[in-house]
Structure formats: structure tokens, C-alpha cells
Design brief:
Distance between the termini: 76 Å
Strand content: 25-35%
Order of helices and strands: HEEEEE
Helix content: 40-55%
Shape: rod-shaped
Structural class: alpha+beta
Strand order of the largest sheet: 4-3-2-1-5
Number of helices: 1
Number of domains: 2
Number of strands: 5
Length: 106
């Protein structure tokens, strides 16, 4: 009788351990589809927007500066701001939005 009770308790412990592992896997899958995957899609979309910038596009930086792209280099660009045409050099990753609508974007 003792052996049967011991085997039953051991089987219950194994079932509890497996259910814990399954719950952990389900939580990881849940976080992947609700948080990580949409964030990766958004980052990819923003990178495509930054790579498609052209001279003359009106852009907004993460700091809220609005300007027109004056020149583009590898990872920086120069934007012209204000009526006095002051120029600011910013990193490409600092561009939040491209306000110019191109015909091929439609």
C-alpha cells in the first residue's frame, strides 16, 4: 500500500512540474505575440522610412524640430529649419516622421 501511495504522489509532482513548464512557455509565447513582434514590425517600418528619405523631404525629429532635408550622408543628415535657413546636423535615428507624401507611397 505504501508503494502505491508513493507512486501516486510522485506522479502528481511530475504533473505539477510539467504544468509549470507549460504555463511558462505559454507566457513567453503570449509576450512574444503581444509585445515583441509588434515592436519589431514598428522598428522595421521606421527603418524603411528613414532609408527612403530624400533631399527636400519635410521631417520631424524626436525632439520636435521640423525641417527640410538638405543633405544625406551614411548615418547623419542635415536639415534646414526656420525662416533664417539655419542648418542642423542630426542622426538618422532621430527622425520621427516624414511629412512629405511621395507618389510611390500611395
Amino acid at each position: 500500500m505504501y508503494n502505491i501511495a508513493y507512486l501516486t504522489a510522485s506522479a502528481q509532482q511530475q504533473a505539477g512540474a510539467w504544468s509549470s513548464v507549460i504555463m511558462l512557455v505559454l507566457i513567453i509565447v503570449f509576450f512574444y505575440f503581444l509585445i515583441i513582434r509588434p515592436q519589431k514590425k514598428q522598428e522595421k517600418k521606421e527603418a524603411e522610412m528613414r532609408n527612403a528619405l530624400q533631399i527636400g523631404d519635410e521631417v520631424v525629429t524626436n525632439g520636435g524640430i521640423v525641417g527640410i532635408v538638405f543633405s544625406i550622408k551614411d548615418d547623419t543628415l542635415v536639415i534646414e529649419t526656420g525662416s533664417d535657413r539655419s542648418k542642423i546636423r542630426v542622426m538618422k535615428w532621430a527622425i520621427a516622421k516624414n511629412l512629405t507624401i511621395h507618389e510611390d507611397d500611395e
